Every structure is written in structure tokens, then in C-alpha cells.
Amino acid sequence: MALPPSQWIIKLAACLFFTGVGCNSVEKKIYVHLNYTFPCVRLLNATHQIGCQSSLSGNVGVLHELESEENLDWVLTSGPNPPYMVILESRLFTRSIMMKLKEGSGRVAGVVVVAPNTNPPEGFSPHTACPNDNSGVYTENYDPTLAHCNATVWNPLGNGLAYEEFDFPIFSVKDDNDTRVIRQCYQDHNRRVNGSNPQFPLCAMQLRSSMSAVTNTATCKRRNDINFSLTPDRVCDELGDFNIWASSRPMNTTTKGHKEFESVVIAAARMDSRSFFFDIAPGAESTASGIVTLLAAAHALRRATQEAPPNRTILYTFFQGETFDYIGSSRMVYDMENNQFPLDLDNIHSVLEVSQVGLHSDSKLWLHSDPVSRKNSSVKEEVEKLVNGLKSASAGLNVSVDEPDVSQPLPPSSFQRFLLARPIPGVVIGNYRSSFTNRYYESMYDNAEYLNVSYPENMTSEEQLEHFPETVKTLTEVATLVARALYVQAGGNETQLANITADPQIVNQMLYSFLVRANNSWLQQLVPTDFTNHLADRPTNFYVGVIQYFSEPTTLVQYMLANMTGSVVNVTQEDCQKQREDKDDDQSKHLYTYMWVQGAAPPNSTEREGFCVRSTVHRSIAVSPAFELHEYTTSNYSTWTESVWKPITGRIFLVASHDLEMLTLGVGITVLLTSLVLTYVISSKADILFSSGREPTSATY
Ligand SMILES: *[C@@H]1O[C@H](CO)[C@@H](O)[C@H](O)[C@H]1NC(C)=O
Ligand SMILES: *[C@@H]1O[C@H](CO)[C@@H](O)[C@H](O)[C@H]1NC(C)=O
Ligand SMILES: *[C@@H]1O[C@H](CO)[C@@H](O)[C@H](O)[C@H]1NC(C)=O
Ligand SMILES: *[C@@H]1O[C@H](CO)[C@@H](O)[C@H](O)[C@H]1NC(C)=O
Ligand SMILES: *[C@@H]1O[C@H](CO)[C@@H](O)[C@H](O)[C@H]1NC(C)=O
Ligand SMILES: *[C@@H]1O[C@H](CO)[C@@H](O)[C@H](O)[C@H]1NC(C)=O
Ligand SMILES: *[C@@H]1O[C@H](CO)[C@@H](O)[C@H](O)[C@H]1NC(C)=O
Ligand SMILES: *[C@@H]1O[C@H](CO)[C@@H](O)[C@H](O)[C@H]1NC(C)=O
Ligand SMILES: *[C@@H]1O[C@H](CO)[C@@H](O)[C@H](O)[C@H]1NC(C)=O
Ligand SMILES: *[C@@H]1O[C@H](CO)[C@@H](O)[C@H](O)[C@H]1NC(C)=O
Ligand SMILES: *[C@@H]1O[C@H](CO)[C@@H](O)[C@H](O)[C@H]1NC(C)=O
Ligand SMILES: *[C@@H]1O[C@H](CO)[C@@H](O)[C@H](O)[C@H]1NC(C)=O
């Protein structure tokens, strides 16, 4: 049959207008979809919106590669073809440049940041200089001289970019094939040659990250409710996840509220991190170092707490969403105050929090405490005991500990939310004295490379699990220190201390799982079968996101903690899943959690041999009390929500000038009309025109 003429005529017409470019190459260059892009997304709190967004159909701009800050002029004033889509090397992704682009947003369609393959030596932190200011304990009411980082600025490199609002999309691309395609397109079409302006067609890019929510949390919550009556579409969701905790001694978790005769030492770490771009929050030092240390300490304490249980219970707690105004810790405190937790605040003896502890050149740890609550003599006494416990635990280890200036406040920490409720003795342990040594706090560069965790390339995953980077040794020492101090703090017998040592093998396996890939043979044994395909072949993303059951860091910590503190029990899979030790057992479920994990395959088989792990590991919800109370404008609790978004895409293509586009459209329409008329004429006269070539449909000869 004849090809409909309209298609190839239009194609030919389009080709003619892209003068100088062969038809085939235009075809190829139109719409190259970018595969590995990371967007910045929109978040909202009680009063502000932050992050980025595009128009509904995506922002389109002519590509411009920025070479230096002076070069901004082309984008902001002199360039003849705005709006521009600006490509930046990461060294130009600075506050100064980004704020200029933000001001000139009429001429800026969006920004693409090319992430480097090695970390910038000068440091970079898009977080604020005073993290979680306003949501910690240091307000004017508590002590005016300590409020707003007056005494010490914790994150001096923080430029606050991650808390700015941009009304154009900002994407990050890896320095790989995508970037090569973008740069090539720019070089071929948009570069100024000998000072003359580039000629059409120009290379353009479209970025789409359209966000539904606007203004603030109260507004988007109201829209959610309106929308809900029409369609089940939401506009925004509260940030949240689960906290993970386990007790060194079983307790009845069915009964909530105060427990008589129970006194607990909370051992805490945070479970989340952030970066400017969604989906890449590796949090190696800011988060993973603390998690790994506390998990390894829990493992080191397993035998001692079972064989020579100390007087007090140790409560290992991992808080989620702490980046966003302490979501997890504020919820746990709230639940304790409202008898929604198996313990209450009266049960808390003291707190030891592990902050950033990745050690670099000088192996020194700092013990931070709160100068205000220490004015109370009984708190002071307990803090001193805890500090001395840590100091004597460091004897014989390769780490030294020291205290900063006595008047210095606590660094940003979950412990602050407990202090907001009441004066509780506690210490925060970190590798910094009065400002973070972490040069990449809450950025995409806080990664394995920064913690010096690297494995020879030619090794298999299996061999890498057996290869210990230097960091493993120091973190093992820190974990031993924390474990011994916790044991003494809980009232344990000091003769046991020599028997409490962290295992470097375990530390290495955990570091590898968080910083390199979770999908490895060790972690596969620790999780249930239905979680296996959630194990990723990349570093863990510690961004808290929206509540979901199998969120990455939470679930990993949950299964690791069960393995570190629990024991294997000989129980059938059925009983295990029904949370009991046998058919007649109706009490165990109050005391323990049972998890059936897939285990390893024995050498002569491919079938894994699952087993049942009994532990005291629990999840507790980590959603801000503000949403429980429907108080979306409160300043007492986190109000952060994340906008819902349409599919996020990026692509590049060539554009003709606006005039040319109009002309092309005009010609296209003319051609279309002509072809319609032609088609009509041809088909109405088809009998005459095609009579010779036609097969008779029902001819009989
Ligand atoms: C900051 O601290 C100093 C003393 O440490 C005090 O004199 C000053 O008033 C404080 N500033 C504010 C704004 O509280
Ligand atoms: C909301 O976030 C903005 C930007 O970080 C901040 O300035 C503001 O204080 C926050 N509002 C509340 C109520 O915390
Ligand atoms: C990048 O391109 C090269 C050659 O064009 C190809 O061999 C390689 O697989 C590509 N890499 C990725 C990640 O697509
Ligand atoms: C993106 O992926 C598609 C399909 O996998 C591939 O055809 C295309 O070349 C990729 N784009 C780039 C820029 O590598
Ligand atoms: C735990 O508490 C529940 C509810 O109060 C009670 O029914 C159960 O017997 C208790 N179990 C144990 C082992 O104390
Ligand atoms: C710890 O043990 C001592 C005696 O060994 C006892 O007097 C004290 O009450 C116990 N404390 C707790 C919290 O159980
Ligand atoms: C990896 O390469 C190094 C040298 O580059 C070599 O010494 C080592 O034996 C290799 N390891 C394996 C497992 O091939
Ligand atoms: C500590 O343990 C040793 C030996 O295991 C024992 O002799 C001693 O009485 C214990 N001390 C306390 C305070 O329980
Ligand atoms: C260490 O543990 C082992 C095994 O449980 C025990 O035999 C030994 O006495 C312990 N050592 C100390 C110093 O308590
Ligand atoms: C922990 O995992 C290891 C596998 O690496 C396994 O041999 C051990 O039995 C597990 N222990 C518990 C209590 O789950
Ligand atoms: C586990 O329990 C079953 C039945 O209760 C028993 O036959 C088996 O020997 C036990 N296995 C171990 C390792 O104790
Ligand atoms: C695998 O080997 C173990 C001991 O090495 C033996 O008990 C078991 O029966 C073997 N299993 C299979 C399926 O051959």
C-alpha cells in the first residue's frame, strides 16, 4: 500500500529548516533522554517552602556552560537567547552564584550541576551553619547566651543552600556519558566562536520536576483535604519513618507508660542525613559512623549483658528524621510523655549519644554536655560519672577523649529533645570540639571516599568483605570505648570490661553495607526473603522521605540490630512468624520480637537455611507530633512535608529560533492541509488511479 504522504512531507519540511545539519543527525539529537539525573525537590514547613520546581510541562532553556562567576553576565544580561539552562561544574555551585541565578530567574530556566568524581578539597556543606536552630533546647527561654549558635557555630562551612527556595529546577548529573552528550551538544551548537553569537539551531534542555505543593505545610494539608473529597490525590506528605530500638533486657512492651523498677541508659544515634539533591544522601560521617559504632557496641555487649547483666537496662535507640527538626526523638519523647511507649521519662537514668565519630588525623573524641542542666547538682554528678566512665574506658585503647570548655552548649543532637522535656544527665560523643571537623556535613560528598573506606577494585564483593580499611580499626576502638562506658554506666561489674571488645569483622561488614553496597552475602543472611530484592548495589541513601515500611536505612538497622543483640532460637518458621516459641506460648510476644531470616546456604547446597532470631528489637513511629495534633503551624515540633511530584525527567534537543519555529509550524499546517486535500482527492479517485495494481477482493476466474 502507498505510504500516507503527510508524514514524510512534514519530515522533509522539518529537515529543510535545520539548515546545515543532516537529517539523520537531527533525528538522533532531538530528544536525548538523560538517565542518571538527581533533582532537588520541594519541601515545606510551618512558614516556608524550600527546594526547587519546574513548570508543569518542564522548563526549557538554551544550554549555557558557565566557566566562571564573571561569565554569569551572559546568562543574566547579555546573552541574546534567554532563558538559559546553566551547566555548572560543582566548584561553581556556590551560594554566591546560586543566589545571583535565583535573582535573575526570569532569564534562568534551570541549573545542571555536574558532580565530580572526587570530593572538592575545599569542603562543601549545603546545610545551615547552625543546624536545627529553633528546634533544639537552646532557645531564649533556656539560655539567651547560648541560643542561635551564639557560643559556637557548629557547621562553619554551611552555606544554607539546601534551605533556599528556587523557582526553577536544579538537577545533578554524574560526570559520565550523559554529561558527555550534554557538553558535546553545547560545544557543537551553542559556543561563541570568535566573539560572534551562536547561530540557530541551538542546543536546549528540558528539565521537568513539577511539584504540587505550595507555600507551606498548613496550605498543602488543607489542599490535601479538599482534594481528598474529589480525588484521592494528595499534594504533600509529612516526612517520617520509624525509630528502631532494643533493650539489653526484655521488658513487657505491651504495657505502656511507667515501669516500676526499670531504669534505663539510652544509647542513641541518628539514622538519617540529607544533601541538596534528592536520593543522594550518603551520610558517611554524619550518620553511618554513629550507627556502625553503636551497633558494634551493642554486639560487643551482648554476652556481658546476658551473662553478667548490669543493674540498669541499656536501651539502644536509632532516631529517624533528625535532620528535619528532630522528628524521631521529638516523637519518642512525646510518646513517653503520653504513655504511648513501654517506658516513660522517669525511667530514663541517663543518655549517651554517639554523634559523628569518623576519626581522621588526630584520634581524639570530645565529650559534650549541657552547661545549663549541669547547674543541678545531681545532674552534674551523673554527667561527671559518665565522663569519667568514658575517660577510664579509653585507657588502653588507641583513642583519647577530652571535654570541651565547660560553658559550651551541646552540638545538634537528639539528646536536646530529652533536655527540652526535663534535665536528664547525658553526654554526646563526637570527633569535634567546637565546630564539626566534617567538611561535607549533609552533602553528597560525605561518602565512603571521605571516610577513607575503599577497597581494591580488582576484588570481588566477597573479598572486599574480608579486607579491612584503616577506618575499620579506629571505629572498632570507638565502639569498644562506647560499649565499656555503657556497661559501667548501667552499673555493670568492672571485672567484665576486658571481655567487652568490638569485632572489626562486624564493623567492616556494616561499613561496607552502608557505604558501598547493601546487597552483599553477609547482609543477605540477616534479612527475610521478601526484603532481599530491596538490598541495593549502591551506597545507602539516608534521606528520610515519606513513611514506608521497607525504607532503606531503617530496615537495615533493624535487622542488623536483631543480629547484634538477639539470639538464634530453635523454633519452626510458622511459630516464628506467629511471634511465639511454641504452640502453647502466649507470653513471649510481650517480651520478644521473632524474625525469620533467610540465612546462608551450606557449602554443598544452593538452598538457604533460614532461622529464627529472637530479639528485643522494635520499631516505633517517627512522625512528628505536629501531625498527630493537627498543629501545622506549631514551632514546638517539626512540620516538614514533602511535595508530591510528577515524573521527573531531563532531555536535550535542538531548537530553531522562535521565528523559525513559527514558520515551521505554519509550513507544517499548510502541508497538513494540502495533504489532507490530496489524500481526499486521491482516495476518492482511487478507482481510477490504482485500478491496475489492485487485487480484486472476490474475483473468481
Ligand atoms: C552572645 O553571648 C555573649 C556572651 O557569651 C553575650 O554577651 C551576648 O549577649 C550574646 N548574644 C545574644 C544575642 O544573646
Ligand atoms: C522553616 O524553614 C525556613 C527555612 O529553613 C526557616 O527559615 C524557618 O524558620 C522555618 N520555620 C519554622 C517554623 O521552623
Ligand atoms: C559510556 O559510553 C561508552 C562508549 O560510548 C560505553 O562503552 C559505556 O558502556 C557507556 N557507559 C555507560 C554507563 O552507559
Ligand atoms: C539512556 O538510556 C537509554 C536506554 O537505556 C539509551 O538508549 C540512551 O542512550 C541513554 N542515554 C544516554 C545519554 O546515555
Ligand atoms: C505483659 O503485659 C500484658 C498486658 O498488660 C499482660 O497480659 C501479659 O501477661 C504481660 N506479660 C508478661 C510476660 O509480663
Ligand atoms: C542496683 O543494685 C543495687 C544493689 O546491688 C540496688 O541497691 C539498687 O537498687 C539497684 N538499682 C536498680 C536501679 O535496680
Ligand atoms: C589486585 O591488584 C593488586 C595490584 O594491583 C595485586 O597485588 C593483587 O594481588 C590483586 N588482587 C586480586 C585478588 O587479584
Ligand atoms: C564483680 O565480679 C567479681 C568476680 O566475678 C566478684 O567477685 C565481685 O563481687 C563483683 N563485684 C560486684 C560489685 O558485683
Ligand atoms: C571472659 O569470658 C569468658 C567466657 O565467658 C570467661 O571465661 C572469662 O572469665 C571472662 N573474663 C573476664 C575477665 O571476666
Ligand atoms: C548473625 O548473622 C550471622 C551471619 O553472619 C549468623 O551466623 C548468626 O547466627 C546471626 N546471629 C543472630 C543472633 O541472628
Ligand atoms: C530443634 O528442635 C527440634 C524439635 O523440637 C529438634 O528435633 C532438633 O534437634 C532441635 N535442633 C537443635 C539444633 O537443637
Ligand atoms: C551437606 O553437608 C552436611 C555436612 O557436611 C550434611 O550433614 C548434609 O546432609 C549435606 N546436605 C546435603 C543436601 O547433601
Automatic annotation (TrEMBL):
<protein>
    <recommendedName>
        <fullName>Nicastrin</fullName>
    </recommendedName>
</protein>
<dbReference type="InterPro" id="IPR008710">
    <property type="entry name" value="Nicastrin"/>
</dbReference>
<dbReference type="GO" id="GO:0007219">
    <property type="term" value="P:Notch signaling pathway"/>
</dbReference>
<dbReference type="GO" id="GO:0005886">
    <property type="term" value="C:plasma membrane"/>
</dbReference>
<keyword id="KW-0325">Glycoprotein</keyword>
<dbReference type="GO" id="GO:0016485">
    <property type="term" value="P:protein processing"/>
</dbReference>
<keyword id="KW-0472">Membrane</keyword>
<keyword id="KW-1133">Transmembrane helix</keyword>
<dbReference type="Pfam" id="PF05450">
    <property type="entry name" value="Nicastrin"/>
</dbReference>
<keyword id="KW-0812">Transmembrane</keyword>
<feature type="transmembrane region" description="Helical">
    <location>
        <begin position="662"/>
        <end position="682"/>
    </location>
</feature>
<dbReference type="Pfam" id="PF18266">
    <property type="entry name" value="Ncstrn_small"/>
</dbReference>
<feature type="signal peptide">
    <location>
        <begin position="1"/>
        <end position="23"/>
    </location>
</feature>
<keyword id="KW-0732">Signal</keyword>
<keyword id="KW-0914">Notch signaling pathway</keyword>
<feature type="domain" description="Nicastrin small lobe">
    <location>
        <begin position="39"/>
        <end position="213"/>
    </location>
</feature>
<comment type="similarity">
    <text>Belongs to the nicastrin family.</text>
</comment>
<dbReference type="GO" id="GO:0007220">
    <property type="term" value="P:Notch receptor processing"/>
</dbReference>
<dbReference type="InterPro" id="IPR041084">
    <property type="entry name" value="Ncstrn_small"/>
</dbReference>
